[in-house]
UniProtKB/TrEMBL annotation:
<keyword id="KW-0808">Transferase</keyword>
<comment type="pathway">
    <text>Pyrimidine metabolism; UMP biosynthesis via salvage pathway; UMP from uracil: step 1/1.</text>
</comment>
<comment type="similarity">
    <text>Belongs to the UPRTase family.</text>
</comment>
<dbReference type="GO" id="GO:0005525">
    <property type="term" value="F:GTP binding"/>
</dbReference>
<protein>
    <recommendedName>
        <fullName>uracil phosphoribosyltransferase</fullName>
        <ecNumber>2.4.2.9</ecNumber>
    </recommendedName>
</protein>
<dbReference type="GO" id="GO:0004845">
    <property type="term" value="F:uracil phosphoribosyltransferase activity"/>
</dbReference>
<dbReference type="InterPro" id="IPR000836">
    <property type="entry name" value="PRTase_dom"/>
</dbReference>
<keyword id="KW-0342">GTP-binding</keyword>
<dbReference type="GO" id="GO:0005737">
    <property type="term" value="C:cytoplasm"/>
</dbReference>
<keyword id="KW-0328">Glycosyltransferase</keyword>
<keyword id="KW-0021">Allosteric enzyme</keyword>
<dbReference type="InterPro" id="IPR005765">
    <property type="entry name" value="UPRT"/>
</dbReference>
<dbReference type="GO" id="GO:0006223">
    <property type="term" value="P:uracil salvage"/>
</dbReference>
<dbReference type="InterPro" id="IPR050054">
    <property type="entry name" value="UPRTase/APRTase"/>
</dbReference>
<dbReference type="InterPro" id="IPR029057">
    <property type="entry name" value="PRTase-like"/>
</dbReference>
<dbReference type="Pfam" id="PF14681">
    <property type="entry name" value="UPRTase"/>
</dbReference>
<feature type="domain" description="Phosphoribosyltransferase">
    <location>
        <begin position="5"/>
        <end position="212"/>
    </location>
</feature>
Length: 213
């Protein structure tokens, strides 16, 4: 498994904004959305399908390259917090389709269970798939979603994870089972606490994004 932490000053800036407990939900959402936009941009490098076309500029003809309209990127936001990473995806990706999924974590066992699954019945083996979740903590939820993608025909090699903060526990869990998976994160934090929260992390990203407790 390849883990990418782009050394970009804008990523560091927006991560600092997202971390601060003093910022209200609107500021938190804005920071996480901006991080999503930058990380998705990085993930698309040399990966998305393109086609070459001729076109007319105001002063002449030009050869151009565009995202292949016949091969939209498949976006899978894990609700609730994954919706915030989705905010900027449409402006970054000219061609995309969104499939919402919802899982909740049992606070006693820390295992994930489904409450919503809008994935297509079948993915194509060469579909480009992005799974969006700001917090990659225990890795249990992400593992469940990845397995569902693979069971529906998706390819591990063409699946990428976009996360704001990842914990070593999640990376150790996913790495042996998904050697071709690519993970993009703003930061790899130090550990999980007894509740399964990333430390120092962001807190509960869903609660912070939507002003709930």
């Amino acid at each position: 498994m390849l883990v990418h932490v782009p050394p970009h000053p804008l990523i560091k800036h927006w991560l600092a904004v997202a971390r601060s407990k003093d910022n209200p939900p609107a500021v938190f959402r804005s920071a996480v959305a901006e991080l999503g936009r930058i990380l998705i941009y990085e993930a698309m490098r040399d990966w998305v399908k393109t086609v070459d076309i001729p076109l007319e500029t105001p002063v002449g003809k030009a050869d151009a390259t565009i995202i292949d309209p016949a091969s939209p990127v498949k976006l899978i936001p894990i609700m609730r917090a994954g919706l915030v990473l989705l905010d900027q995806a449409a402006s970054t990706l000219p061609m995309s389709e969104t499939y919402h999924v919802g899982l909740e974590r049992d606070e006693r066992t820390l295992r994930a269970r489904w409450y919503l699954n809008k994935m297509p019945r079948k993915f194509n083996a060469d579909d480009r798939i992005l799974i969006l979740d700001p917090m990659l903590a225990t890795g249990g939820t992400m593992e469940t979603v990845i397995e569902e993608v693979l069971n529906r025909g998706g390819s591990e090699s063409f699946t990428k994870v976009i996360s704001v903060v990842a914990a070593p526990e999640a990376l150790r869990r996913l790495s042996p089972n998904y050697p071709s998976l690519n993970v993009y994160a703003a930061m790899i934090d130090s550990e999980l606490d007894r509740r399964g929260f990333i430390v120092p992390g962001l807190g509960d990203a869903g609660d912070r994004a939507f002003g709930t407790h």
